Amino acid sequence: xxxxxxxxxxxxxxxxxxxxxxxxxxxxxxxxxxxxxxxxxxxxxxxxxxxxxxxxxxxxxxxxxxxxxxxxxxxxxxxxxxxxxxxxxxxxxxxxxxxxxxxxxxxxxxxxxxxxxxxxxxxxxxxxxxxxxxxxxxxxxxxxxxxxxxxxxxxxxxxxxxxxxxxxxxxxxxxxxxxxxxxxxxxxxxxxxxxxxxxxxxxxxxxxxxxxxxxxxxxxxxxxxxxxxxxxxxxxxxxxxxxxxxxxxxxxxxxxxxxxxxxxxxxxxxxxxxxxxxxxxxxxxxxxxxxxxxxxxxxxxxxxxxxxxxxxxxxxxxxxxxxxxxxxxxxxxxxxxxxxxxxxxxxxxxxxxxxxxxxxxxxxxxxxxxxxxxxxxxxxxxxxxxxxxxxxxxxxxxxxxxxxxxxxxxxxxxxxxxxxxx
Length: 422
Fold this sequence. Notes:
By secondary structure, the chain is an alpha/beta fold. It has helices at 7-11, 15-24, 36-41, 48-61, 67-74, 81-85, 92-106, 111-123, 127-139, 141-144, 149-160, 188-192, 195-205, 222-226, 230-245, 257-264, 276-286, 290-293, 313-318, 324-331, 352-355, 357-373, 384-389, 399-406, and strands at 179-183, 209-213, 251-253, 287-288, 306-309, 335-336, 378-381, 396-398. Among the domains are: 7-106, Orthogonal Bundle (Fumarate Reductase Iron-sulfur Protein, Chain B, domain 2), CATH 1.10.1060; 306-406.
């Protein structure tokens, strides 16, 4: 694709990969059929090909982006379906990430939007503040349910959560320890569903893996990163790297696939930094997803349960772990039911469900329509954002909780099915 990037821009460690992505694009349009927003809206500017043109013009010209450019880039889910489908290997991820950071630094959003984004970055990355938000959301539930727009979307996340017990800080130790893995407490999941990490600890202990809380770490930085707030995202990354370097571990785990994808790609945030880039590369090499560790293990699951397994976009397109979740669930004895358009994003996408509530809800309805047509008893996923977003008439349960139950652990608390007492 023709472009006017200068030699200096191409040599920049952050802008260079974005410019290279532009140059790689041949405008074939194969990506458009895989893009959820293009499929939904039918607007070229809301597909990868159109956005690449907008981002190219913005980055080449410099200065303040136009509201039109910002609007269409904001509508991108970063699901990366386009990157997976692209025959020219265009690294769309580098381009859209850099463009979001550029917008954050060069565009002045309306006051309400700035306040909302600041609130997401400051509140949702801190579990104590998320818990406080949950309390107030439930206290004002009748009002929260009818709040409009972005504020309502943020508040209703609290009503969809069903936390069971406190966040775990002590995990079972196997009789024979094969690996010692540091687990990051994370942020939103710790407040919304602390039972997930409890189940993870039990599942991995059966496989000889000891979990130890990575003291001093917190949010992985994905939430601010998705909004282009790179300074804040890098600050969280540095905390995690420092904490990991202070101990002796065989790896570092975080139990949401979106966060795993962030950790495994974390070195790019420090590209060109002589001190932090090599440290970030070592950390990224040690990063694990739950499915990296949860090897298939025969168990006695209820084979009569119909599971709709929803592989998050981060699992499919960033971690490249298609089939891993299905393998461990089937090994445990569960029956999986296929459903249509499994590749399309559910509309959660980190902060997207709050910042783009109308599009997000449209994608949610489409995803649930496909899932419910398969008549499952439960929706299973490995990402807290998807589980919260898809919650409704059909129970949503984390993959680790289902494995734990099949292997002798407790039944997931929100899994209410006739005859499912065990």
